[in-house]
């Protein structure tokens, strides 16, 4: 009805410092109610063209500013996001389905911190210099921004992952055209409203909203965008690699995972169980770093399983804006169906579902009956070859299986196409190092999970990606290096 459409939030693209309406729009749903509540621009070639032009025009001035000037602007943007933290958190929770608690404590603080972190780290890089005394030469390297950076981000940690790209890109002096996920565009649009006040010059940050197939691909194929930083699925990354190949673009690809937790019989279960619960189900299991294969040494297998399932049953699933809720709604109806189908397939193969989907009943408040909810689900008696043990599910589903020896579990943990993050639980220091070294995984957490130092490289091996992000790694990705030799 007219009344309804009037109350819808309508987003606009942000190009050259101005909000620009689009000729067509996509519906965006509130995952916790199933209602359409927002219209997202359905941008294509034309809008991307305008954004790239604005970014190109802004590049000469922005790239010639000193790191300190850029740093001050990034810090100001961080201040402004922090001032509006509550509004951003509410919007992220409504748009994505995640709990308000998670948005308040993880997503938005980290989005602000991303700007603060790169505002600082950009001031501290040193380039290399070598001397060749016998030739009378010194060599040194200089680094310069590349140009217009194309940034594409997913829906699971919307503002968190988008700012993890925008911050280093502009700190290094590039200008950007970013495309957030069409399913979670609201907080990116809200951030655009802060750009002017933060002192970000027009055209330095441009945001084009729309689908991957239209807006995303137009960006990937644009000849004046020499680098693409992408976070999303492995399948999309293959497409982006193909489409960008004719232009020889520089790519950073942060992709999916099928992350193992390896729990030895000397693990401290009082720490391990609550952390593994979080690593399996935090953010509805929609974090690329989430655990979905739990290998438990046989001696403690039944005790672990009993305690883990008992704790999983205590997790409260429901209205994301209720601060006592642990798990909100999944991103979309289609995604919920996909996740549920994995559970069905496991069942058909003879696996056991110990709690959650199809086993326990989900009681939702009246306003959330049409939301995309499911309970934390634990699967066992599942074979390593099963799709539930091989493919990324990206939902609140985790498999628990026993193992006997260190040698065996390393082989099984490595037996998937992915290699993003692994956790190892043991009180034996020697074993922890040994196992960590042999896991095919870009990140290994031992006796903890998701503890990050943004200085250090983040990224995956195998089908989990190409390249790393972090203080030094992002600086190297977003700059072009040159070696200069001086003879005296
Ligand atoms: P997705 O690949 O479907 O979409 C990611 C982004 O790419 C979206 O903005 C989308 O619109 C865009 N896109 C889709 N097709 C495109 C195309 N042909 N050309 C250009 N852009 C295109 O991923 P998703 O479903 O939004 O996110 C979930 C995935 O992201 C999971 O696989 C998850 O593991 C992964 N992820 C990885 C990391 C990491 O750091 N490694 C972090 C978060 C999420």
From TrEMBL:
- Spell out the PROSITE patterns in the cross-references: ALDEHYDE_DEHYDR_CYS, ALDEHYDE_DEHYDR_GLU
Q: What class of enzyme is it?
A: oxidoreductase
Q: Where do the Aldehyde dehydrogenase domain residues begin and end?
A: 24-484
Main site of residence?
Answer: cytoplasm
Gene Ontology BP annotations: retinoic acid metabolic process
Quote the subcellular location field of this record.
Answer: Cytoplasm
- The active site is formed by 254
- Give the enzyme's EC designation: 1.2.1.32
Task: Tell me the pathway.
Answer: Amino-acid degradation; L-kynurenine degradation
Q: Which reaction does it catalyse?
A: 2-aminomuconate 6-semialdehyde + NAD(+) + H2O = (2Z,4E)-2-aminomuconate + NADH + 2 H(+)
Keywords for the protein's UniProt record, in alphabetical order: Cytoplasm, NAD, Oxidoreductase
Task: State if RNA-binding is listed as a keyword.
Answer: no
Q: Write one Gene Ontology MF term.
A: retinal dehydrogenase (NAD+) activity
Q: GO CC annotation: what is one? A: cytoplasm
Q: Name one Pfam family in it.
A: Aldedh
- Report the family membership: Belongs to the aldehyde dehydrogenase family.
- Role, per record: Catalyzes the NAD-dependent oxidation of 2-aminomuconic semialdehyde of the kynurenine metabolic pathway in L-tryptophan degradation.
The name of this protein is 2-aminomuconic semialdehyde dehydrogenase
